[in-house]
Write a structure and sequence with these properties.
With about 120 residues, this protein is mostly helical. Among the domains are: about 40 residues; about 40 residues. The chain is about 70% helix and about 0% strand. It comes from Aspergillus ochraceoroseus IBT 24754. Keywords: Membrane, Transmembrane, Transmembrane helix.
Length: about 120
């Protein structure tokens, strides 16, 4: 039985961007010198913006029509309002608490991938 790995999954814009990130940074390093972190930083920020843009144009707005179709017509408005407000609340809590958690619990190495 084969395990499902990222090589067996179909390519998505996010996988394509992340796969292309290292060659872009490497090319910038070759052109402008390895000691310059400016090119790597600009490339990283640019690809983060591209990733966010692609996400917001594809999967990002999907919860809105899904929650609108889940509820009956008579309870649709309060149902969507509660669903959207809970989405905003939990996104805020996740964004606010995630950077604080590793430092307070001695797990500084856990989120190193997202800090790079």
């Amino acid at each position: 039985m084969k395990l499902l790995t990222s090589t067996h999954l179909p390519p998505t814009p996010t996988r394509i961007i992340m796969k292309d990130h290292l060659p872009c940074v490497s090319t910038g390093g070759l052109l402008f010198g390895y000691d310059s972190g400016v090119i790597a930083g600009i490339t990283t920020i640019s690809l983060i913006y591209v990733n966010i843009t692609i996400y917001n144009l594809s999967w990002g707005p999907l919860p809105w029509p899904c929650t609108a179709e889940l509820f009956l017509t008579r309870i649709r408005e309060p149902g969507v309002a509660i669903a959207v407000s809970s989405q905003w609340l939990f996104n805020f809590l996740w964004s606010f608490c995630t950077p604080l958690y590793p430092g307070r619990h001695g797990l500084g190495h856990v989120l190193t991938v997202w800090r790079v």
